[in-house]
Amino acid sequence: MTTITSAEIDAYVAAVAAALTHLPGAVQADLLEDLPDHLAEILGEGDDGTLRERLGDPATYAAELRSAAGYPAPGADGESAPRLASVLAQLRSRLDRTDLFMGRLLGYRRAREAARALQPGWWVLRGWLVAHILTGHFVSTHPTGYFPKVAGDGRLGALLVAACIGASVRFGRATSRGTVQTRTLATLASITIAIFGLYILNNIARWTYYY
Amino acid sequence: MDSTQLLKGVLDVAVLAVLRDEDGYGYDIVRRLRAAGLDEVGDASVYGTLRRLFQGGALTTYVVPSDEGPHRKYYAINKTGSAQLDASTKDWGEFAGAMDKLLSGKVGAA
Fold first, then answer.
1. Which of A18, A91, A111, A174 could form a disulfide with A103 if both were Cys (CB 3.0 to 4.6 A apart)?
2. Is the pLDDT of residue A144 over 70?
3. How many angstroms separate the CA atoms of A188 and A175, rounded?
């Protein structure tokens, strides 16, 4: 057996290994296992030419070896990006399943459809709440009844409620056909009113307790 | 036609066929493939394919010690590999037959 320039083999192996560092250690070891013997065989042939001339550039060799063995290229599987994407995908599927489950509980295909069907009901409730807000009946110093009074007058109060409900329904119809921005603003307004609603309900509860 | 592209799809089968004849070590297998006419086959592709076939359970390995030279790692085909080769041979036959028909202009016949 002819003497082999092991320095040249080591250098080539090191260069190939450098191109495989994105792979797990066990995989790298597996791919590099046959390489020194392979290189020794080539040099043993005694042909002219260096390993690079015979086999090509080590990085190219590494890429071909990796690809034939069925492993991904560097950067093809970044660690953090797929993890975030898979978390988001899991979240989305969980939301979807909840949507279907809650929907079926309510007798609809999806909870979203139930919400849309109940939306006009919310508009009416919203109008009633706005009437209370306008007459300042979310403040706890004035416990109030189910219908707000305008300047002490019950009938005016009833009129106000009717007007607010009408306005709320119109507003609801208009915004539900609007742009995303419009709908978002409307939703935010509704949420604010709903929060006030909690205070109003609290007030009414105290009123019913006292009267 | 670029034969390297054609070869990528069938190198597994070619390697299994070579090993069915006789066990071989890496470089020996490369030489046999080239001798059979696949002179474009790359060393790295053969070694990578050997690793993949081994990891897939189609090949076994054993080391042959030697006093004068290096110990050589030999690859051998096992039952799984044989079954894979048989199935692939059948597939290849059908595929090659279809391509021959197309290229000789005999398309259309049922």
1. A111
2. no
3. 12
What are the tokens at A208?
Answer: 């019913």
Q: Distance between CA atoms of B55 and A27, rounded to whole angstroms?
A: 11
Q: Cα A102 to the chain's mean position, in Å?
A: 20
pLDDT digits (tens, 9 = 90+) for A53-108: 888 889 999 999 998 988 888 776 555 556 777 778 788 878 888 888 888 888 88
**Which residues in A lie closer than 8 A to residue B51 (C-beta atoms)?**
30-31, 33-34, 68-69
**Cα distances (angstroms) measured from residue B42 to each of A61, A65, B6, B11:** 9, 9, 13, 10
Interface residues of chain A, partner chain B, Cβ below 8 Å: 1, 30-31, 33-35, 37-38, 40-42, 55, 60-62, 64-70
A42 contacts in chain B (CB < 8 Å): 27, 43
Contact criterion met (CB < 8 Å) for A64 and B42: yes
Asked if A40's CB is within 8 angstroms of B51's CB, the reply is: no
- Which residues lie below 8 Å from residue A184, measured CB to CB, with a gap of 6+? none
- Look up residue A70 and give its two tokens: 């069925």
CA distance A175 to A205: 32
Contact list in A for residue B45 (CB cut-off 8 A) is 64-65, 67-68
Strands B24-25 and B59-64: unpaired
How many angstroms away from the CA of A61 is the closest CA of chain B? 6
Contact A68 B72 (CB under 8 A): no
Between CA B31 and CA B16 the distance in angstroms is 14
CB contacts < 8 A (A, B): 65
Q: Which residue in the block uniquely carries the two structure tokens 């290096």?
A: B70
